[in-house]
Amino acid sequence: MSISLDDVGRAAGRIRDIAERTPIMTSHLFDERARVQAFFKCENLQRGGAFKIRGASNFAWSLAPGDLRRGLVACSSGNHAQAVAIAAKALGIAATIVMPEDAPRCKLQATCDYGAHVVMFHRERDDRDAIARQIAEETGATFVPPYDHPWTIAGQGTVAIELLRQSPDLDAFMTPIGGGGLMAGCSTVVKALRPAMRIFGVEPAGANDTWLSLRAGERVPIVPPTTAADGLRAPIPGAITFPIVQRNVDAILLVSEAEIRETVLFLLTRMKILVEPSGAVAAAAVLFHKLPPDVGRVGIVLTGGNLDLNYLA
Fold first, then answer.
1. Do 273 and 210 fall within a single domain?
2. Which of 90, 133, 216, 284 is the most exposed place for a label (fewest CB within 10 A)?
3. Beta-bridge partners for 52
4. Which DSSP category does 76 fall into?
5. Pick from 124, 143, 162: which residue ends a domain?
6. Phi then psi for 169, rounded to 5 degrees?
7. What is the per-residue burial (b if ≥16 Cβ within 10 Å, else e) of 153-185?
8. 156 and 231, same structural domain?
9. Are residues 17 and 153 in the same domain?
10. pLDDT digit string, tens, across residues 50-74
11. Alpha-carbon distance 263 to 275, whole Å?
12. Does 259 score more than 90 pLDDT?
């Protein structure tokens, strides 16, 4: 199962009324420290505070009316949870979200505020996918995958369509990688429209399942990782997303927890934008000179801004 540029284009049409066209930001100080020209696609300013609304709404709007009436169910540590809740509210249907007990409080509260019913699970003891699919089977609701489905992937790929229109003259494109949906969608767009452009994914060093998998040539599971980047804790790349990432991505770059924290602080204090740790990992790789030295202009997706204020403090 794969997607095409046409799939992403159709997704862009479906989600036009619910997803924002987020701005591009630049920073002279960031460029000086990073020794590149960086163009930030600010999905932290997206509806729901993250890019996830793109994939969730494209999935929901692709369902048949009869399926929609039975509601939606999803599992997520927060951003996909909020996205599904927003889509369900816009459609006037029910949403049940399976969330880990250690989910950031701000993401849990926002998901509830959007009207979703939340079911908690223990990250190390329970199988969140099994819980969500059991709820779907019992209620007739449709399970909305956070990344591993062509509709979700196509929706996430709309980020790259916008970025390449807003900043067309780039040498490289970068996103964080969790399950791989954003990178699979965006890399499909980049390869179709700018085949010579290099593509880099970024993971926390302690959540390096894609980095390990690319080296092994197959999906490699890891133990549930501990990282401040809670949105990047997928223990194995997606079955659908991984072959796309394997085909399109030049390299996976790794960043430390200290580098992630410093980048979150830089973006807040110097650029005046709030970006969560998961959303800041690609910027961290650039700020700490992980890119090849011949990259001059890079598009960086800041994937989300739902940061718990206790963690920020």
1. yes
2. 216
3. none
4. -
5. 143
6. -100, 75
7. bbbbbbbbbbbbeebeebbbbbbbbbbbbbbbb
8. yes
9. yes
10. 999 999 999 999 999 999 999 999 9
11. 9
12. yes
d(CA 4, CA 188): 7
Residues 59 and 124 in one domain: yes
Contacts of 265 (CB under 8 A, 6+ apart): none
The domain of 249 spans 5-51+149-312
| Residue 260 CA, distance from chain mean position | 16
What is the spatial distance between Cα 54 and Cα 18, in angstroms, rounded to a whole number? 8
Whether residue 90 sits in one domain with residue 128: yes
Q: Which whole number is the average pLDDT over 182-199? A: 98
Sign of torsion over alpha carbons 211, 217, 223, 224: positive
Q: Which amino acid is at 175?
A: T
- The stretches of the chain forming alpha helices (DSSP H) are 5-14, 28-34, 52-62, 65-69, 79-91, 105-113, 128-139, 150-166, 181-193, 209-216, 241-248, 257-269, 277-287, 309-312
What is the arithmetic mean of pLDDT over 87-94? 95
187 and 267 part of one domain: yes
Same-domain status, 160 and 176: yes
Give the C-alpha separation, 53 to 218, whole Å.
Answer: 29
Report the sign of the C-alpha dihedral through residues 130, 122, 207, 97, in that order. Answer: positive
Beta bridge partners of 167: none
Instruction: For strands 251-255 and 297-302, give the pairing.
Output: unpaired
CATH number of the domain enclosing 84: 3.40.50.1100
Give the number of domains in the chain. 2
Clarify whether residues 115 and 189 are in a common domain: no
